C-alpha cells in the first residue's frame, strides 16, 4: 500500500499512535518518504502535538526510544515474539545507509547496557556509526552500575572504549563501588589496564567506605595503587560518620590510614552518635596523641549534638577528669 499521499495528520497517527509494531513502522518508514521525514524529525508541518513537547520536537528520538528504550526492553522479554520484533526492527533500521545515527543512539546503547541486554548491545556495537565512548562512556558506566557482567565484558573488549574516559562524571569503578553489589564487576574493572583506581583522588575507595561496602574496601586496599589516606583520610572519616563499624575496622587495619589526621573521623562518629565506632577509635594507640584543643573541640560539638555519654567516654579515654565549661556546652553537664 502506498501511503505517501496520505494527509500529514494521518502519517503522524501511523508513526506515533503505538498501534503498529516497531517492525511495521520501520518497514513503512522505508516505503514512505513522508513517513520517513516525520520519523527523522524533518516533518515540521502539523507535527504530532506530543512530539512538540519532547526534545524540542525531535521526532527521530521518538523512534529511537521506541526501538531501544528501557520501556521497550522491559516489555520485550528475551525469547518472546515481541522481543524478536524489536530486534528485527532495529536491524532493519540500522541497515539503511541513509539513516543518520545522531548522539542519542549512544543513549540507546547505554540503556541497553544498563538493562543487561547483550543481544542489543552486540547489534549496536557492530555499527561503526555508534560511538561507545560518547557521553563519558555512559554505556560502560551503566553496565557497571547495574552489575551486568556479560555486557560489561563486551564493552571492555571493544577496542574503541576507554572505561576511564568519563568527562566530568564519576568513573565506572567509582560508580560500581557506589551501586553495584556484584563483586565480579569490581574485579573486572581492576583487572583492566585502562582503569585507574586512583582516579579522582581515590574516589573509588572513598565511595565504597561511605556506603559501608566492606568487601569492596578490602578488595581495593589489596590493590597497591589505591591510597586510602587520600583527601585527608576521608575514607575512614565517611565510614565513621555513617557508623559502619566493620568498614572502620578494615581501614584501621591498614597502616596508611590515620584516623587522627585531624579530628574529622572522631568528630563525625561522636557527633553522629555512633558509640561503637567511637570506642573503636579511642582504643587505637594513636588516640593518645590527640591534642587538648582538638579534644575539647570534639567533646564540645558532641555535647551540642546531645551525645553526652559519648563525650564523657572520650574524656575518660583521654585520661582526664576535666569537663567543658558551660560556655562551651549549653546542654546538660558531662
Features:
334 residues; mainly alpha; Serine Threonine Protein Phosphatase 5, Tetratricopeptide repeat; 21 helices; Ankyrin_rpt-contain_sf; repeat; Ankyrin_rpt; ANK repeat
The major sheet is characterized as: none
What is the correct CATH architecture of the largest domain?
Alpha Horseshoe
CATH top-level class of the largest domain: Mainly Alpha
The CATH superfamily name of the largest domain is Ankyrin repeat-containing domain
Helicity range of the residues?
A: 55-70%
Number of strands: 0
| Radius of gyration, whole Å | 28 Å
Q: Which overall shape is indicated by the principal axes computed on the Cα atoms?
A: elongated
InterPro entries: Ankyrin_rpt, Ankyrin_rpt-contain_sf
Keywords: ANK repeat, Repeat
Question: What does this 3D model show about the protein?
Answer:
The chain is an all-alpha fold and 334 residues long. It has 3 domains: 1-100, no CATH class; 103-194, Ankyrin repeat-containing domain (Serine Threonine Protein Phosphatase 5, Tetratricopeptide repeat, Alpha Horseshoe), CATH 1.25.40.20; 197-334, Serine Threonine Protein Phosphatase 5, Tetratricopeptide repeat (Alpha Horseshoe), CATH 1.25.40.20. It has 21 helices and no strands. It has helices at 8-16, 22-31, 33-39, 49-52, 59-68, 70-75, 81-95, 104-115, 118-125, 134-146, 149-156, 172-179, 183-191, 199-210, 214-221, 230-242, 245-252, 264-271, 275-282, 292-304, 308-317. The protein is elongated, with a radius of gyration of 28 Å. The relative contact order is 0.05. Mean pLDDT is 77; it is low at 41-81 and 320-334.
Amino acid at each position: 500500500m502506498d501511503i505517501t499521499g496520505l494527509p500529514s495528520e494521518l502519517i503522524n497517527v501511523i508513526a506515533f499512535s503505538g498501534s503498529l509494531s516497531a517492525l511495521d513502522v520501520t518497514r513503512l518508514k522505508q516505503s514512505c518518504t513522508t513517513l520517513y521525514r516525520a520519523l527523522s524529525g524533518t516533518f515540521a508541518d502539523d507535527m504530532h502535538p506530543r512530539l512538540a513537547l519532547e526534545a524540542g520536537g525531535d521526532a527521530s528520538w521518538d523512534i529511537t526510544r521506541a526501538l531501544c528504550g528501557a520501556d521497550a526492553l522491559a516489555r520485550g522479554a528475551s525469547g518472546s515474539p515481541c522481543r524478536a520484533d524489536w530486534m528485527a526492527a532495529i536491524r532493519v533500521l540500522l541497515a539503511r545507509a541513509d539513516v543518520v545515527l545522531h548522539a542519542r543512539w549512544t543513549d540507546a546503547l547505554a540503556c541497553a547496557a544498563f538493562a543487561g541486554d547483550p543481544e542489543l548491545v552486540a547489534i549496536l556495537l557492530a555499527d561503526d556509526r555508534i560511538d561507545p565512548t560518547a557521553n563519558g562512556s555512559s554505556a560502560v558506566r551503566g553496565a557497571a552500575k547495574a552489575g551486568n557482567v556479560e555486557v560489561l565484558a563486551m564493552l571492555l573488549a571493544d577496542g574503541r572504549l576507554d572505561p576511564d574516559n568519563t568527562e566530568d562524571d564519576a568513573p565506572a569503578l567509582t560508580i560500581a563501588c557506589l551501586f553495584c553489589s556484584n563483586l565480579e564487576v569490581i574485579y573486572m574493572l581492576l583487572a583492566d589496564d585502562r582503569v585507574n583506581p586512583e582516579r579522582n583522588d581515590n574516589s573509588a575507595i572513598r565511595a565504597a567506605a561511605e556506603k559501608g561496602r566492606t568487601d569492596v574496601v578490602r578488595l581495593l586496599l589489596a590493590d597497591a595503587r589505591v591510597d586510602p589516606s587520600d583527601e585527608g583520610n576521608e575514607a575512614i572519616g565517611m565510614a565513621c560518620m555513617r557508623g559502619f563499624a566493620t568498614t572502620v575496622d578494615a581501614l584501621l587495619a591498614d597502616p596508611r590510614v590515620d584516623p587522627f589526621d585531624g579530628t574529622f573521623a572522631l568528630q563525625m562518629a561522636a557527633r553522629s552518635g555512633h558509640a561503637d565506632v567511637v570506642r573503636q577509635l579511642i582504643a587505637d594507640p594513636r588516640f593518645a596523641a590527640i591534642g587538648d584543643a582538638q579534644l575539647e573541640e570534639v567533646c564540645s560539638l558532641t555535647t551540642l549534638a546531645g551525645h553526652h555519654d559519648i563525650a564523657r567516654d572520650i574524656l575518660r579515654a583521654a585520661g582526664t577528669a576535666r569537663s567543658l565549661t558551660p560556655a562551651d556546652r549549653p546542654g546538660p553537664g558531662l
